[in-house]
Amino acid sequence: MADTGAAGEPRTWDFFISYTAVDRRWAEWVAWQLEDAGYRVLIQAWDFVPGSDWMFGMDQGVRHARRMVALLSAAYLRSVYGGQEWRAVRAEDPEGFARKLLPVRLEDCDRPGLLHTLVGFDLFGLPAEAARVYLLEQIGHSLAGRAKPAAAPEFPVPPRTAPPVAEPVFPPSPPSVPVGASPFGTLRATLTGHTNSLCWVAFSPAGRLLATISDDTTARLWDVPAGTQHAILTGHTKSMDSATFSPDGTLLATGSVDGTARLWDVA
């Protein structure tokens, strides 16, 4: 008999998290991010409470969750129960049209058999905030069935390998110019951290802070003299397209294609 709600209908979830015991901390982290974003999640660690039948709960997740997130690791791929879960969902959607099975790698491991042809993504090797943004971005692409960017791609100008006919060949820069320098100035810092293309940059009135915004839905504040990251600002749900400081430099305003503007206390 299926687990039912108040109206007698089978309970449903947006996602069932399939994992093995050694990856429980990863599973709870993924489940928390999804629920925090408004999705309904079934996960053994939270939903299989004392007195419940865990095998029945697994069956409910496989049968009544719209999609299953399979957290892949070497231990998971050796798990008998994990294999039963992902194979059952794969059998329901063998062509992948419904995208019912979402493989997510937690470590660098091979994807055997029927998992090999499914498009998935990796969470390992990313800092926590970047992993959160990437997880929700990839989940959104799977639900939408498309990953079209919010902004138009740049025109792809091919690199020049040789000058056109009749164009003079200029000699390379003299070896006395140091690496990272040019006749017009010297490189001060390279700021990295965004996981997608940048859309806008803005200096604070005093010039001590730089704001950068990106298609990864985050804004970042940088300490210009130190060349270090000052803060990560999260909250927009789609790519951002503008940013400006208040005249006194105490507030930063950001705009996004999600239809919202946000004000941030710079301090």
Set out the fold topology.
Blueprint (H helix, E strand, L loop, with lengths): L12 E6 L5 H13 L4 E2 L1 H4 L6 H11 E8 L1 H5 L1 H13 L8 E5 L15 E2 L5 H17 L36 E2 L2 E2 L11 E6 L5 E6 L4 E5 L4 E6 L6 E6 L5 E6 L4 E5 L2
Parallel strand pairs: 1-2, 1-3, 3-4, 4-5
Antiparallel strand pairs: 6-7, 8-9, 9-10, 10-11, 12-13, 13-14
Helix pairs in contact: 3-5
A few lines on this structure:
This protein is of the alpha/beta class.
The counted number of beta strands is 14
Helix content: 10-25%
Which structural class do you get from the secondary structure elements?
alpha/beta
Largest sheet entry:
5 strands, parallel
First-last Cα distance:
56 Å
Percent of residues in beta strands: 25-35%
Described by its quaternary structure, the protein is single chain
Any overview of this molecule?
There is one protein chain. The protein is 24% helix and 25% strand. By secondary structure, the protein is of the alpha/beta class. The chain has a five-stranded parallel β-sheet. A hairpin with a 4-residue loop joins strand 13 (251-256) and strand 14. Helix 3 runs parallel beside helix 5. The longest helix has 17 residues, at 128-144. The N and C termini lie far apart (56 Å).
Features:
alpha/beta, 267 residues, 6 helices
